[in-house]
Design brief:
About 70% of the residues lie in helices and about 0% in strands. A two-stranded antiparallel ribbon has the order 1-2. The radius of gyration is 38 Å and the shape is elongated.
């Protein structure tokens, strides 16, 4: 396990460093980390394990190679106690780290000792690796503490995610180069040339490691947080162990790294032995894993900042074991890969996709751990707490490769002869994968889930919904738009990013959208407001309501529209209050939104608005809202407005609203559109349907004579409508209304709501000719006739 990159939360930024100095230091840190990751790829990656395998090392020796690096973490606690007494950390870290990296020139010479195939080089390598790891772990606490004080907590997740992606790019390049060097300069003659490639790779790694330390010297160091004089070592240890959350994180992550160590690099050994994979093929898989970590790194930083490290870590731990199923479906054979001249092994092509996914998920677990460790480690004595955490994790993790190596050596003796679906025989690696799955799902996940919720962490169910939308590809596009919205781009670009976040309903973006409500550009503010309505959720709705209640806000119109898009009932009170606003646009949008919220408290204020409003847009919005609320009591007021309005467009709008009140929603609007296309056709169909009903009812025993009258009157009304004699048609419609009123159909046969609509409709028909038009009011038009 390589040295981690923790996130920490200091109580305040060190006063001796300006924000510019801090950001410059973080940039240098990334470049230094890129060099350091190059050292990891060439020293601790594929070459080290393959070198031991080439020397004939056993499974236990391979296990010890990884275990000594983990056990070296025991030195972190004494190193921490020493570092806490130092006035500065950089010089001590640089001295220990430089010696640690210089030792890697020795493995470059070891191949000469192992050219005859003896075990001397294997044990010598174990000693060198162990000594180097001790120096590395001695330096680690000071680096942790240094970075924890340097990185501002508000950008912690984002910085570590970005740094992870940048350093992984270096890992990609060096892994590819390593595979090529090993394949080109490693022979099979049985002489020193067999190991020349390893000598070149280890020398290159040592140079990169030394360069990492030198570049790091330009990173500024804030004054360390000195722990207050307190209890002795035993008491400090006990105090941390008693912290349940710190204990669960430590043991849970120890189990995770133990499970990872069980698999470790044994997959590479399996691929070499079973499939004869080349070093280049192995480097392709390592690159795929690193690419997954790179592409997901920045995204995970944003996700952690918005979901919370604990809940994100749980999700990643649940997903991680699923990637192991790929090993049960490997097979021999070659496949054609587009763009490559030669066929490639099927197993490498097949595993590449799964390694990419595993890299993304595993990097998410690591980032969640780093962030949580920074939160749970106390600001005073943080270095000691981190050292204890990594020491315990290292001890547990050291048992993983030893267990895996023992299983690898013992598996042939178990005589398990089974063929997998791809025809490949069951091997030691499959036993390791099953053990990995069981440990993660049944030990690591419960421990991680036992940690208490931290800060503004979202609930688990909400986190799942936000992280895995209906279209998972939208997650990364949304994160890209979040990033674009936070960059110093043009207002048009930022506004477009807001719009896309709304279209994608990216729940992760709520925090960023709310922050953009105070943007300097009105276009950005408007798009952010509308996007909040599309995304929804308690935080978004609360922000929109706050805009409506803020008399200084210029986003009331957009806030009302946004609430209408989401149909959020919680905004009814604020919308009702805004009906008294002097701005007609605000009033009309608030009225329309109230119509979709289905809050009966809005009926009375909307009715008052319908009666008193002077501007057509306002009373039309009120009528539409009342129709949406099914306010049958407002039918007389809508009819009164319709009869007093000369504007044909407004009359149509009021007629549609009234039709929705007294009939089925949308029915009259469809009738109006069809009638505009072919005059009289829809009216004929409508009356024909009515006559069919009346004919059927008239055939019952003892039928009312009214049914025959209704049928004859309907023919007369239709004929008058066809001749464009609207006044005569209105008379016949009024007569139809009187005939319908005489029928006893309300008692026991209609629901109260339907009966209320019937009575409202009859009242409209009754007013067709009984009341003369008001002074200046227009005569009846096709709109009213169709409504009748």
């Amino acid at each position: 396990m390589s040295a981690p990159l923790p996130e920490a939360v200091p109580p305040a930024l060190p006063p001796t460093l300006s924000d510019r100095q801090i950001r410059r230091g973080l940039r240098i840190n990334m470049w230094a980390g890129a060099l350091g990751m190059g050292w990891v790829a060439t020293a601790l990656g594929i070459p080290l394990i393959m070198f031991v395998e080439r020397l004939g090392g056993s499974g236990i020796q391979l296990g010890w190679l990884a275990a000594v690096q983990q056990l070296a973490m025991l030195v972190q606690i004494p190193a921490t106690l020493f570092v806490e007494r130092l006035p500065a950390r950089k010089l001590f870290w640089a001295s220990a780290a430089l010696l640690h990296r210089l030792l890697w020139f020795l493995p470059a010479m070891l191949p000469l000792l192992g050219a005859d195939g003896s075990q001397t080089a294997v044990w010598a390598l174990l000693v060198i690796v162990g000594l180097s790891a001790l120096l590395a772990q001695a330096a680690t606490p000071s680096w942790f503490s240094w970075m924890a004080d340097l990185v501002p907590p508000r950008i912690g997740g984002r910085f570590w995610g970005t740094r992870s992606s940048v350093t992984t790019l270096s890992f990609l390049a060096m892994t590819a180069l390593t595979g090529r060097l090993l394949d080109r300069y490693t022979a099979t003659t049985g002489g020193p040339a067999d190991y020349l490639g390893f000598s070149i790779v280890f020398s290159l790694g040592a140079l990169l490691g030394v360069a990492d330390v030198i570049v790091h010297l330009w990173v500024p160091e804030p004054p360390p947080h000195k722990p207050a004089p307190g209890p002795r070592l035993g008491a400090r240890l006990w105090a941390l162990v008693r912290e349940a959350d710190f204990r669960r994180l430590t043991v849970g992550m120890g189990c995770w790294y133990f499970a990872l160590g069980i698999n470790g690099a044994f997959g590479n050994i399996y691929l070499r032995r079973e499939f004869g994979a080349s070093y280049t093929h192995l480097s392709v898989l390592a690159i795929a894993s690193a690419l997954g970590a790179t592409l997901a790194g920045v995204a995970w930083g944003y996700v952690i900042d918005r979901l919370g490290a604990r809940v994100f870590g749980i999700l990643m731990l649940i997903l991680a074991p699923f990637t192991g199923f790929c090993w049960f479906f490997v097979a021999h054979g070659d496949v054609i890969v587009p763009g490559l001249a030669q066929p490639q092994p099927y197993v490498i092509v097949f595993l590449t996709a799964f390694f990419f996914l595993a890299g993304a998920i595993f990097s998410g677990v690591a980032l969640a751990q780093f962030n949580l460790l920074g939160v749970l480690a106390p600001a005073s004595g943080r270095t000691f707490a981190m050292a204890l955490h990594w020491t315990c994790v290292g001890v547990l993790a050291a048992l993983g490769p030893l267990t895996g190596g023992w299983i690898m050596d013992a598996f042939p003796r178990w005589n398990l002869h089974y063929a997998l679906p791809g025809g490949v025989p069951l091997a030691f690696l499959h036993a390791l994968v099953v053990l990995f799955m069981l440990l993660v799902w049944f030990v690591a996940v419960p421990l991680f889930a036992g940690i208490r919720r931290q800060g503004r962490e979202v609930p688990f169910g909400d986190a799942v919904a936000r992280l895995f939308p209906a279209n998972p590809l939208r997650l990364f596009s949304s994160i890209f738009n979040i990033w674009l919205a936070s960059m110093p781009a043009s207002s048009h670009q930022r506004a477009r990013a807001m719009r896309r976040l709304g279209e994608a309903r990216a729940a992760l973006s709520v925090e960023d959208l709310i922050a953009s409500l105070s943007d300097a550009a009105i276009e950005v503010r408007e798009e952010a407001t509308l996007a909040l309505g599309e995304v929804g959720g308690p935080e978004a709705i609360a922000a929109l309501i706050g805009l409506l209640d803020d008399p200084e806000s210029d986003l009331a119109v957009e806030a009302a529209r946004a609430l209408r898009r989401h149909r959020a009932p919680g905004g009814a009170d604020a919308l009702i209050r805004r009906l008294a606003d002097p701005d007609r646009e605000t009033v009309s949008e608030c009225a329309r939104t109230l119509g979709v919220l289905q809050d009966a408290r809005a009926i009375a204020p909307l009715t008052d608005l319908l009666r008193t409003a002077r501007e057509g847009k306002v009373f039309l919005a009120a009528a539409e809202a009342l129709a949406g609320l099914g306010a049958v009591t407002a039918a007389p007021d809508i009819w009164g407005r319709l009869r007093a309005t000369g504007n044909l467009v407004w009359r149509r709008g009021l007629a549609v609203a009234l039709g929705d009140v007294i009939g089925e929603r949308g029915e009259f609007y469809s009738l109006l559109l069809r009638e505009n296309e072919v005059h009289g056709l829809s009216v004929a169909r409508l009356l024909a349907e009515a006559r069919a009903v009346w004919r059927r009812l008239g055939r019952r025993p003892s039928p009312s004579p009214v049914y025959a009258t209704l049928r004859s009157v309907s023919f007369a009304a239709e004929a008058a409508y066809e001749r464009d004699q609207l006044g005569e048609c209105a008379d016949w419609l009024a007569a139809l209304g009187r005939g319908l009123a005489d029928l006893e159909v309300g008692s026991g046969t209609l629901s109260p709501a339907t009966e209320a609509k019937r009575q409202a409709g009859l009242a409209v028909l009754a007013h067709f000719r009984s009341d003369p038009p008001a002074s200046g009011a227009p005569a009846l038009s096709y709109v009213e006739i169709l409504l009748g």
